[in-house]
């Protein structure tokens, strides 16, 4: 039973230390994804605005 508890505790400690070390990388990846999504949304919004303004009035 002690072996199993030691194994589980070791895994928890290794996972925690890995997450602490990779925190900056995770933040960088999240910032990159947020920038890509913002650019995509801006592109799509601009395209819609141009299409809306170039349509002739349909009264």
What does it look like?
The protein is mainly alpha-helical. It has one domain (1-51). It contains 2 helices and no strands. It has helices spanning 2-21, 23-54. The N and C termini lie far apart (80 Å). The chain crosses the membrane at residues 25-43. Keywords: Membrane, Transmembrane, Transmembrane helix.
Fill in the keyword field for this structure:
single chain; 59 residues; mainly alpha; 88% helix; 0% strand; rod-shaped
Taking pLDDT < 50 over at least 5 consecutive residues as the criterion, the unreliable ranges are none
The assigned structural class equals mainly alpha
Q: Helices and strands, in N-to-C order?
A: HH
In one word, what is the shape?
rod-shaped
Number of distinct helices: 2
Task: Give the termini separation.
Answer: 80 Å
Percent of residues in helical segments? over 70%
The largest β sheet comes out as: none
Brief write-up:
This protein has one domain (1-51). Helices cover 88% and strands 0% of the residues. The protein has two helices and no strands.
SSE diagram, text form:
Blueprint: H1 2-21, H2 23-54
């Amino acid at each position: 039973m002690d072996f199993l508890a030691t194994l589980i505790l070791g895994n928890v400690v290794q996972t925690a230390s890995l997450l602490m070390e990779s925190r900056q990388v995770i933040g960088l990846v999240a910032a990159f994804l947020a920038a890509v999504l913002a650019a995509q949304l801006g592109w799509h919004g601009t395209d819609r605005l141009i299409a809306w303004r170039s349509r002739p009035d349909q009264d």
